[in-house]
What does this fold into?
Amino acid sequence: MNFHVLTLFPEAFEGPVRHSMLGRAIQRGLISVKITDIRSYTHDAHGTADDYQFGGGPGMVLKPEPVFDAVEDTLAPYSPEARAAMPIVLLSPQGRKLDQQLVLELADAPGIALICGHYAGVDERVRTCLATHDISIGDYVLTGGELAAMVVIDAVSRFVPDVVGSADNVQEDSITSGFLQHPLYTRPAEFRGMAVPEILRSGHHGEIDRWRRRESLRRTLKLRPDLLETAELSTADRQYLAELGYDPSIIDLPTTDCESAG
Ligand code: ADE
It folds into this structure.
């Protein structure tokens, strides 16, 4: 998977994508992250990438010419078929909100171009005539699209084969599975008076699976009941959810020891 980032701040990417799992994925040739400085596609001596907005108003707007030129140059080495399959993503707070479904769609592509917006915004012609996707990472406004591009790179890379240990890991993820993850524990079995649930130490794998499924359902119902509307639920799942109330507005879920402690 080739990520092509178009940005006014190439230095912003030097650290984050070079470490940990992404760093190893780059070293192993599983992904590549190529950074293009939009400013190098400006045509005046000052490298002017922004301009005042037509109609007046505060804030500068990222000009269309350097962005179109930078994207076209970046995609030029690809075959027409590969180019047609490649998402050209504009990162902006106006876009479709990123979720795991969208991440999976993006992960199918041979590569992704990520345009990081800046200033008050980007000339609308970039959105309507160049970008194939307009993506927001949440309902808040960042100073630019760089952090959002990193989020997309990180989330999509996890679905590139071999980036994360085993393919099963990502399929069983929180959210990908349709539920939030069950609680995880490691040693020590008791820490500052807080014990790991006995069941997890019992060695009864069937019972452990059942406990995990129930905890996952309980947590999803409590924190993200919207996910249950589309999740695949077995009869046993439905029965358990019914025991818990199912209508999140009226149920009072039992809390864990820690939650009740404060
Ligand atoms: N640029 C500024 N805010 C953003 C957001 N929430 N998502 C994506 N890009 C952005």
User: Anything to note?
Assistant: The beta strands are 2-7, 32-37, 50-52, 60-62, 88-97, 111-116, 121-122, 133-136, 190-191, 194-195.
